[in-house]
Amino acid sequence: MTGTHAYPRPTQAVVLAGGQGSRLRPYTDDRPKPMVEIPGTGTPIIGHQLSWLAAEGVTDAVVSCGHLAGVLQDWLASAELPLRVTTVVEPEPLGRGGGLKFAAASLPHPDRPWYATNGDIWTRFSLREMAAFHHERDAVATLALARPRIPWGAVETDEFGHVLDFIESPPSPYLINAGVYVFSAAFTALLPERGDHERTTFPRLARDRRLAGFPLPQGAYWRAIDTAKDLTEAARELRGETA
């Protein structure tokens, strides 16, 4: 792939792990959302994330904590981790963009590109390919794009209203933000001190054609862990993968 070797691949990442996870209760009554274990693995979501980041060449991660931060910090302090981890806690709620900027201030190399991921995403794909894609498009920011399955069965009809077929959980016709990013060093300065970058920074970059979207490769595993049903599905898919 053009530019893959010339481009300094990111070796640092921010993990946004401050969410309350109210839809995952009772699992999140005593722990933050990224500390919820995928059933059958014995490892919390963030453990899977950090292993993935390390496998993709990341040596330093900044974990932004919030809700029940101490539980997450205690686990990180006691776990055998495959990379260096620093934790930060916002002094007050800064919003998603402000929180990202606050965490990025603790990255070891502010003059180099970096990855970011939401703390409730469980996925596997090549971050190196995404970084090369980002570089080739001269983007300031690149977001991974997923095509989730619709949770309902779809009904296909013809122009006369006859039912032709039933399709169980079809792929969505729309791509969504998969919650994984590559950012150039210059992106940090464009983030708001507080507020949501998806309503300020991203639209501005999109207008300037400096925001890129990297579709997840065919067959890549991706799941957002939002509800107890997602946990059950993830465990079932994991059993399918290892069966």
Automatic annotation (TrEMBL):
It comes from the Bacteria. It comes from Streptomyces stramineus. This is Nucleotidyltransferase family protein. InterPro entries: Mannose-1P_guanyltransferase, NTP_transferase_dom, Nucleotide-diphossugar_trans. Residues 13-238 form the Nucleotidyl transferase domain.
